[in-house]
Amino acid sequence: MERDRRRVWHGFTQMAAYADNRPVIVERADGREVVDVDGRRYLDAISSLWVTTLGHRVAELDAALVAQAQRVAHTTLLGNGNSVVVELAEDLAAVVPVDDPRFLFASDGATAVEQALKIAFQYWWNRGVKGRDRYLVLGSAYHGDTIGSLSLGDGGFGTDLFDPLRFSGTRRTPGYRDPDWLAKARSVLDAEGAGLAAVVLEPVVQGAAGMYVADPEDVATLVRAAQDVGVLVVCDEVATGFGRTGAMFASDLAGLRPDLMCIGKGLAGGYLPMSATVASGRVAAAFDGADLGPRTFYHGHSFGGNALAAAVARRHLALFAEWDVLANVSARAAQLGAGLEASVADLPGVGQIRRCGLMAGIELDPPDDGLRWGRRVCAEAVEQGVLLRPLGDVVVLVPILTSTEAEIDRIVATLASAVETVCR
Ligand SMILES: *Cc1c(COP(=O)(O)O)cnc(C)c1O
To answer: What is the pTM of this model?
Structure first.
């Protein structure tokens, strides 16, 4: 830990307090548990910040990675192709809810969002339409930490100091925590739709906001209204994609067909950094033109379409079907909901519980500021062998999709015990 503190700068972490917060230093993993340098085991109840889908050290994914390494690890997609990436794009095309989809690969979720917002902007430019340069975005939204994605996201998380760097072309209406969010978004859409390049939203679940869940029908209503007046719809499925909500994509829960979709996190099973911006064929067609001409999308990342990640992502997608992962998600999600209701909801100090599939947020309700209940409850759970991490005073549970019945019970029991210890 001392060597870590001296040389590694951890994201979203106050390094001066890092060591005092007793970080887990992982040395290896085993199924759904991580093992620290002292041999202590922790059940991973946050899917390593929402990226791990089927587990750590899945034999089939390990084998896909090794086999690809013996072919080629990486070649550029700028102007050239790679067969495993072609195969992945074809496999993904069969499952994403985007018409005639095209995949622009990158490495991180924020970058996938960055690409989507630039594609939406240039789409109108390429079509010669002037004045469609604003984005309708939601309160409490989180889309990543690059300047563009940060601009689409709402403030908070200590990012307000960057406000002068955020671009100004956003129109923000309240997020899912406001029961009237749909009506407010619609009224702006109705009044200002002609000036909008796109509506950008996290379909159904605003994860980083603290797991706020919208009625899928409401999301569908807004998306249909936007598409009816020609505004592009960008669904950020970086967190919700690949089974977390119980469907393959949250857009499926709402029956949406977004024009652009961002995927990341679980795309390669949590093994490797891979993301993609998915564009409909109609959007992509607006970029066709002369070689080296101005309609080209001049954007690309060195590691976009990494072959190792593509091989793992392909095998990962096949395993979803082979193992009927979504059936397990449904059963475990129902169990998690019932367990939280029975053992956690009525404990002193617990406020609202919000959940969609295997994404849950337990809002703690401390009597005073500065008690750091979120952090202390999670620290207590870690002490008891279940790895948790809070968002402020919201304890977030994002169990791995292949979790067993016994593991879900253990997560709920440990959380209940940690809440009782800290909040009593
Ligand atoms: C995590 C997340 C991102 C950012 O992804 P990174 O890979 O961390 O850059 C974007 N959007 C949503 C909804 C996310 O949950």
So the answer is: 0.98
